[in-house]
Design goal:
With 190 residues, the chain is mainly alpha-helical. It has helices at residues 3-7, 11-21, 24-46, 49-66, 76-96, 119-123, 127-136, 139-150, 155-162, 166-187. It contains ten helices and no strands. Mean pLDDT is 82; it is low at 98-114.
């Protein structure tokens, strides 16, 4: 089977071929399909090119070693995203050690959120300003906002990636939008 024939295969077909017949080109194709997205997500979360490159390689080693565990309950891209996201958050946690950066806000539900922040407010922020706002909010909040608005993932997909209920994700998004809005008002009062 030639490389051209393989490149027309779906992710699931490549995975099956790789696992059943040990065709090394299959994993190479999967790698080439997803390395850009994985690296992009790593750089947005880790904010360092060298760390993002290292993390991308480690993530693909993890994917390779766990490929037989992919059960097709979600799309392969969602599974890859989940591994990437979790790897980066764990990396950030290890770097921050004792400082908790991604606490479960459901335990801190005392926060008063009266008004819903309209998605349009976030989407209409000027790109440079939005980048500054995202850099000021906690990494977990930034990640969930990027998943929803940059990567266009559904609430269901995000809940699968973060291993939380859909209602917890909706609340997390609501709180993250409020934090982003507050930071925006603090940085850009006019």
């Amino acid at each position: 089977m030639g490389l051209k024939d393989l490149s027309a295969k779906t992710d699931s077909e490549l995975i099956r071929l790789h696992l059943d017949q040990q065709v090394p080109e299959c994993f190479s194709l999967l790698y080439n399909r997803y390395i850009g997205k994985v690296y992009s997500k790593c750089i947005s979360l880790l904010k360092d090119e060298v760390k993002a490159q290292d993390a991308s390689q480690e993530i693909f080693v993890k994917i390779y070693l766990n490929l037989s565990k992919f059960n097709e309950k979600s799309k392969f891209s969602t599974w890859v995203y989940s591994i990437t996201y979790n790897f980066c958050i764990d990396f950030i946690r290890r770097q921050k050690k004792a400082k908790t950066i991604f606490s479960d806000e459901m335990e801190n539900a005392s926060e008063d959120l009266v008004d819903e922040v309209d998605d349009r407010e976030l989407l209409e922020m000027e790109v440079g300003r939005l980048k500054k706002v995202l850099d000021k909010i906690p990494p977990g909040d930034k990640a969930v906002l990027l998943m929803k608005y940059q990567d266009d993932l559904s609430i269901k997909d995000i809940s699968g990636i973060l291993n939380k209920t859909e209602s917890a994700i909706k609340m997390k998004l609501k709180r993250a939008k409020h934090k982003a809005q507050q930071v925006y008002k603090d940085i850009f009062p006019n």
